[in-house]
């Protein structure tokens, strides 16, 4: 389906405005900078290919985020590979700065969460989306998202407390 000029301009503006956020979102799934760039590139291609199916341009941001999430999940399913740590992450670990340790614990705890919970946490706290926007991105109702968010935070709290107790012992 051919896209009209106005829709194309809106899509380009949306992608440009949110490029850092969608990269971070993809990275939160694939954990590798090159793979995240591939996911974003594929998501942009899919967005242009299916832009004609977008019914309401007001929901373009959440529509595009959904494409990025789905493309990330497709990538993980397709590659089923060991998560390779990229150079930037490796360097941040190698520097061993004190303030990096809590972030590493949080990253590990997030990685251990099932995808449905990790998605809600990432979209809510790292991408700063509202509950309704997350519901739109993940195609769920708002009460389901609230429940998942509550459960995810509870699981994270338990995980982080367990890790802290192990370090103390």
TrEMBL record:
It comes from Paenibacillus alginolyticus. Residues 15-81 form the RNA polymerase sigma-70 region domain. Keywords: Sigma factor, Transcription, Transcription regulation. CDD domains: Sigma70_r4. InterPro entries: RNA_pol_sigma-70-like, RNA_pol_sigma-70_dom, RNA_pol_sigma70_r2, RNA_pol_sigma70_r4_t2, RNA_pol_sigma_r2, RNA_pol_sigma_r3/r4-like, WH-like_DNA-bd_sf. Residues 106-156 form the RNA polymerase sigma factor 70 region 4 type domain. PANTHER family: RNA POLYMERASE ECF-TYPE SIGMA FACTO, RNA POLYMERASE SIGMA FACTOR SIGV. This is RNA polymerase sigma factor.
